[in-house]
Hints:
This protein has 182 residues and is an alpha/beta fold. It is built from three helices and nine strands. Helix 1 packs across helix 2. The chain binds 1-O-pyrophosphono-5-O-phosphono-alpha-D-ribofuranose. The site of 1-O-pyrophosphono-5-O-phosphono-alpha-D-ribofuranose has 15 residues, from strand 2, strand 5 and helix 3.
Amino acid sequence: MNRDPLPAIERILFTEEQIALRIQEVAAEITERYRGKPLKLIGVLKGSVFFLTALARHIQIPVKIDFLAISSFSNRSSAPGVVRIAKDLDEGIENEDVLLVEDIVDTGLTLRYLLQTLSSRGPNSLGVCTFLDRNSRRLVQIPVEFRCFEIPDHFVIGFGLDHNQLYRNLTYVAVMKPEKNT
Ligand code: PRP
């Protein structure tokens, strides 16, 4: 399914097989780190959904799953990276071991906000796991405990990542043609 590159795609960065292998490796790291502790995975909607479900299937300890959604304020009077929680978690995280799961970390501003907000709710621990890390765009330093791939500064789609809400369902990650992502 959807293996044929689309017209919008410049090149495939990670194939379905590469992604599956790397996710299994990261899931094994998470299993070892949290063994003996019930773990809660928190997905940041929407992009992380594909990664979170693939990751969770390979974690060999019991996990709970919850989601939150954020909105960016993108008008001119707001500073860049100012976000708010648009959909909060269904349950509290007090005394729980929590792993925030992201599809991509760019500036780090979203995660800085989420880590500040969630740490005030009294978790036992609060870590970060991201599918992609575009470290060259980082504006604030964020502790990222688990990452699948570091990527160059290109516009990427697939495996949860979108362009105008499309392409999240691609089974691979691809670089988009520059003229298509404006
Ligand atoms: C992406 C990603 C992170 C954020 C990272 O979300 O899922 O939440 O951007 O960017 P930052 O490090 O510069 O703050 P996006 O706004 O694209 O929403 P989506 O997950 O619904 O696609």
